[in-house]
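User: For a benchmark we're assembling, each entry needs the component sequences followed by a predicted structure for the full assembly. Here are entry 17's components. Please fill in the structure.
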Amino acid sequence: DTGVSQNPRHKITKRGQNVTFRCDPISEHNRLYWYRQTLGQGPEFLTYFQNEAQLEKSRLLSDRFSAERPKGSFSTLEIQRTEQGDSAMYLCASSQTGGPGELFFGEGSRLTVL
Amino acid sequence: ELKVEQNPLFLSMQEGKNYTIYCNYSTTSDRLYWYRQDPGKSLESLFVLLSNGAVKQEGRLMASLDTKARLSTLHITAAVHDLSATYFCAVDMIVTSGSRLTFGEGTQLTVNP
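Assistant: Structure for entry 17:
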């Protein structure tokens, strides 16, 4: 399977704990995006990388959130001191510079904070 | 800030009927995308519209883009149950660092037999 891969698919945690999600993009794609989706809403942009550089962060991304893409391949999204409001589906997507701009999404990582 | 609005947000229709979903956006862009999402699943790309007047068709779905009106439509012809899903439009906003997609709230479509 050469699509976008995310894990874990589902994480249940207690408030105050840290969680980390991983995303492996389509191998030839140099852009990687993180979005958050809550029930009944469209995906909301969080951040994006071109290669290893983090080029934009949404103001939705509080100080408790950090994303990395150390070698320009896979990416991690860490949430520290989780809160119940962080419960959502975290979607990763990738695309190629110079292409039509279409994003290819992974299956998502669902976070439940108790 | 770019706003993307879809209507209707909920659509219940009978098999065999036609209907149109509308997507309005608030700032200049000439790139618009339609995605489908099934419950509990991720987003599947349906259409990529890259210029004013672009029209794409796949099966019973047809999408069009009018950049002057800042409007895209997704037309459903002779709906079947398999089309039941949530449909999102997304607009590409060019920023200094590149581009990113801003999504509408989605239209939840239910096709009844």
